[in-house]
Amino acid sequence: MTPDLMAAGAQKLAEFQAKSSQDQGSGDREAAYGRLSHGEPDFAHGVALYLEDITVSFDGFRALNKLNLAINVGELRCIIGPNGAGKTTMMDVITGKTRPDAGTASFGSNIDLLRLRENDIAQIGIGRKFQKPTVYEQLSVFENLELALKNDRRARASLFSRLSGEQLDRIGETLQLIHLLPEAQRTAGLLSHGQKQWLEIGMLLMQDPKLLLLDEPVAGMTDEETERTAELFLSLEGKHSLVVVEHDMKFVGELTQGWKKVTVLHEGSVLAEGTLADVQANDKVVEVYLGR
Ligand SMILES: Nc1ncnc2c1ncn2[C@@H]1O[C@H](COP(=O)(O)OP(=O)(O)OP(=O)(O)O)[C@@H](O)[C@H]1O
Q1: How far is CA 266 from CA 81, 95, 107, 273, 280, in A?
Q2: Which pTM was predicted?
Q3: Per-residue pLDDT tens for 94-123?
Q4: Residue located nearest, by CA, to atom 29 of ligand 1
Q5: Which of 19, 52, 212, 278 could form a disulfide with 274 if both were Cys (CB 3.0 to 4.6 A apart)?
Q6: CATH entry, 3-290, from 3.40.50.300, 3.90.550.10, 3.40.109.10, 3.10.129.10
Q7: Which residues form a coiled coil (predicted)?
């Protein structure tokens, strides 16, 4: 890379970091954090994420009401539920944006998420994709991935250095995975909506998250893009744990393949859990959500 490009890259990285902390700071309540040294999550028991009796109130209104949820290591879990059920609030709790009034949340068996800051939670391997894609429109697809890679704590030292062969390989593999290899040099702003979503997922993957939280990832996508996104998520399953919040039942059906567990949230609690067919046949679920 030329010095000019390196300087431009460093500036973009600074913007990226400032933007992330701005996004993260926009929660309605400030978490009260202790100083906790956090190591690697311990997944020996097979559980990646464990929420127990999580309650969040906004001016007396319970957005989450004793919510319990366990996600296994490598599991792909779809979460569905009507508007206002608490899906976003749940993700806010997991990522440290909102601090609950009560309950416990752990990553692996050893990391108490409620004592960590948002940045720390991202650094220990929880990545979140918001509904709207936020890529650097003026940079190429490749540069977007490069910046994401260099935002990783393990690569900070190499911010001003050339990409190593290993890093180039990682970017190449990710480009292939997100179906954007032919678009590597294309300006991200010229991509379709679906391609931008994939690029942002690729940017998250550059940081090798253990758990990925994806909020309505196929909203606004074409049918073909939706199918490709399902393929992408299925290829990530096993290597990462994925929590996907979606309203698109066809997509949920493609992801769950007839056998995986779906969780239905309603009024801040789990209303039902089971296969998609199970929950679609559940009278309570039909009444509050699917039948409308
Ligand atoms: N900062 C807040 N202040 C007051 N009420 C809030 C706040 N954030 C969320 N709520 C309320 O909490 C409830 C749960 O909201 P949440 O956004 O978590 O639902 P959701 O399941 O993600 O809905 P959607 O499918 O529409 O995204 C809603 O009734 C919402 O109005």
Answers
A1: 6, 21, 24, 12, 14
A2: 0.85
A3: 999 999 999 999 999 999 999 999 999 999
A4: 84
A5: 278
A6: 3.40.50.300
A7: none
